[in-house]
Write a structure and sequence with these properties.
alpha+beta, binds 2,5-anhydro-1,6-di-O-phosphono-D-glucitol, 346 residues, 21% strand, Fructose-1,6-Bisphosphatase, Chain A, domain 1, 5-stranded mixed beta sheet, 10 helices, binds manganese (II) ion, 8-stranded mixed beta sheet, D-Maltodextrin-Binding Protein, domain 2, 34% helix
Length: 346
């Protein structure tokens, strides 16, 4: 590395510290919390890297008497997140996709425990056995209640009140991507010295629909607006889509990350019959919505902006579309047209 290259060299730690300087009222509590999530992700990274080895041992009939190694990676990642975050004075409570109820931490001293952290410890876990990227997603809210112990309502806040959101992708390299409402920044884990290094400052989603990402096997289950939207992008004459490709990993973090860098739209719409989506509002959709908006994109259910939804339950699932502003606005128009038509024919 030359001297000039070092001038812009930032680790996750130094970058967060430099950003914190931009908010003089901040006491560093929140920055510590983000750095701690960075640490948790390095521990998960280490486990994910060994996943294949652990599987091989298992397949050869080597019986592992140590419970940890036999644990599925998603519950292991969950334990890592909980263990690294629960002792932080700033954290009043945790909510995880893997836990039926929020983990309310014990009484905190005054001024402590002011944040709750919600997370999907391992996203895309069905892909792990095939060595396909997986991820961790997190969302941070300031508590709304003021007691020494947090209330259930602290976890049920709309996405627009998130103070930070981000994800880690355990891919060909491991990356930590986050926003605190001041742009989206990406860091790549340098395996040589085990630090996240700033590699993608201020990510903006390119204004090109490079990728169309959905589980297209579900096409028959989609409503008419979603079918029209998919058909328009995949087969329509609009030159904007002449070079669009279908790309779907089945790990939302990986699909979101690729589309953030290349441009495009990711959707997991509702099943027409049940009216329900698959992805979870609090651990997946709301954090992706904040990241997308911070990068110049949008996220919607088709009828409502994801950031505006007031959650009614912890594990709520919603129909979800995220990506370029242009495509998301088009999708919302098609859904509105479908609804208007249904109204006039009713
Ligand atoms: P998780 O592993 O946290 O349960 O999430 C899986 C999700 C998401 O990552 C992905 O986009 C989606 O499930 C894939 O679903 P399909 O297999 O139905 O396409
Ligand atoms: Mn998930
Ligand atoms: Mn998960």
């Amino acid at each position: 590395m030359s001297e000039s290259e070092f001038r812009d060299f930032h680790t996750l730690e130094s970058y967060i510290a430099s950003q914190q300087g931009m908010h003089p009222q901040s006491r560093g509590v929140f920055s510590n919390l983000l750095r701690r999530i960075g640490l948790a992700s390095k521990l998960i990274h280490a486990k994910v890297q060994k996943a294949g080895l652990l599987n091989i041992l298992g397949a050869r009939g080597v019986i592992n008497v140590q419970g940890e190694q036999q644990m599925k990676l998603d519950s292991l990642a969950n334990e890592v997140m909980k263990a690294t975050l629960r002792w932080m004075p700033a954290v009043g409570g945790l909510a995880s996709e893997e836990e039926s109820d929020p983990v309310v931490l014990g009484p905190r001293d005054e001024g402590e425990g002011e944040y709750v952290v919600l997370f999907d410890p391992l996203d895309g876990s069905s892909n792990i056995d095939a060595n396909i990227p997986v991820g961790t997603i997190f969302s941070i809210h300031r508590r709304t209640s003021s007691g020494r112990v947090c209330d259930p309502e602290d976890f049920l806040q709309p996405g627009r009140s998130q103070v930070a959101a981000g994800y880690v992708i355990y891919g060909a390299s491991t990356m930590f991507v986050y926003t605190t409402g001041n742009g989206v920044h990406g860091f790549t884990l340098d395996p040589e010295f085990g630090e996240y290094v700033l590699s993608h400052e201020n990510i903006r989603i390119p204004d090109a629909c490079t990728c169309f990402s959905a589980n297209e096997r579900n096409y028959q289950k989609w409503d008419d607006a979603t079918k029209r939207f998919a058909d328009h992008i995949r087969f329509g004459p609009d030159p904007r889509y002449a070079r669009t490709s279908s790309r779907y990993v089945g790990t939302a973090v990986a699909d979101f990350h690729r589309n953030l860098l290349y441009g495009g739209v990711f959707l997991y719409p509702a099943d027409r019959k049940t009216g329900k989506g698959k992805l979870r509002l609090l651990y997946e959709c709301a954090p992706f919505a904040m990241l997308a908006e911070q990068a110049g994109g949008l996220a919607t259910t088709g009828r409502q902006r994801v950031a505006e939804i007031h959650p009614t339950e912890l594990h709520q699932r919603i129909p979800f579309a995220v990506g370029n502003r242009r495509e998301i606005e088009l999708y919302e128009r098609l859904v509105a047209e479908m609804d208007a038509k249904a109204k006039t024919s009713a």
